[in-house]
Every structure is written in structure tokens, then in C-alpha cells.
Amino acid sequence: MLNDAGLRMVIACFGSACFTCFTWGTLRHFVRRNEEAQGTWVISLLSLGGFGFFVWRILHKTASPGWAVGCLLFAASAGLWGWALTTTRATPPTLAFTGDEPRLVLHAGPYRWVRHPFYSAYLLFWTGTAVATPGLSGWAAVLVLGAVYVAAARHEEGKFARSALAARYAAYAAGTGMFLPWPRRESIR
Fold first, then answer.
1. Residue 45's Cα: distance from chain center in Å?
2. Which of 38, 86, 94, 99 is deepest in the core (most CB within 10 A)?
3. 29 DSSP assignment
4. Fold of 4-188
5. pLDDT digit string (tens) for 158-185?
């Protein structure tokens, strides 16, 4: 059985592994445009700050009784993120808040269930950091970055609404959750 310091180190390692994957994706998977948006930098800086706060809290305080749930959320986050990455390998998306025109509507992989699986993965991660550490202050990153992800998702959906793919995307969005899956309309009838 791990003592508290060992447990906190394990939690920090799990969280760091996820955050490292996300950082790699930002630098290597997502398409960067010359007109890189301020919103992309806002997300990056808030994420870095939130992660630093998580690491400081987990290394300087005791682990939360929900630490195992936090680690499961990290694993779910990494799994969903990896699935989304694999699905978009041939057609990587652009970074958040860029002004590019959408090229296609994805229906494969996690996109079959949610419209923004990368943001869903990030939200699972931040929820994991809040659950794994004691107190309410850990929920600040979930709330702040959650609001930024909603703004980014709405920005992306606005690009679709103004594109040649507007009708196709609207039909897709009508049966698919933004961040959480919901029953498809065909299965309700």
C-alpha cells in the first residue's frame, strides 16, 4: 500500500502524462495557421496555469478521498483524446479560434457521439484534477476552461454555419451532443 506521499506522486504522474499528450497534440497534431488566434494563447496559458496549480496542490497537500476516481477520469480523458487523435490523423483540425473554413464533417470515431471530443477529453482531465485533490479551489480550472471550451466550440460551429457545409453540419449537430453523448434521434423512435 502506498503512503500519502507515494499516492500523491502517482496521481501527479497520471495527470502529467495526460497533460504531456495534450501539449504534444497542440504542438504537433493540430494545424497551425499564420493568423494564430489570441484564443489559442488564452487556452494555452490558462491550461498551463491550471496544470501548475494542480501539481502544486497534489504535491503539497493530501490526496482527496476521490483520488481513484480522478485517476479513472485521467485514463478516460487519455483514451478519448487518443481516439480523437487517431480519427483525425489524416485530416487534423486547426487550433481553437482560428478563422479557417471547415473542410469536412466528421462522423467517425468519437465524432459519432460528440461534436467536440478533444474538448470533452480536456474537460474529463480537468474534472479529474479537481476530484483528485481536496477542496473546492480545484474546480476553478474546470469552470474557467470549461467556459473557454464552450466559447471555442461555438466559434467552430459558427464557422460551419457560415460554410458550404452548413446544412450537413446542422443535421449532424441535431443528433450529436456537444461534449456529452446523448441518444441519437433514430434510436428514440
1. 15
2. 94
3. I
4. Four Helix Bundle (Hemerythrin (Met), subunit A) (1.20.120)
5. 999 999 999 999 999 999 999 999 866 5
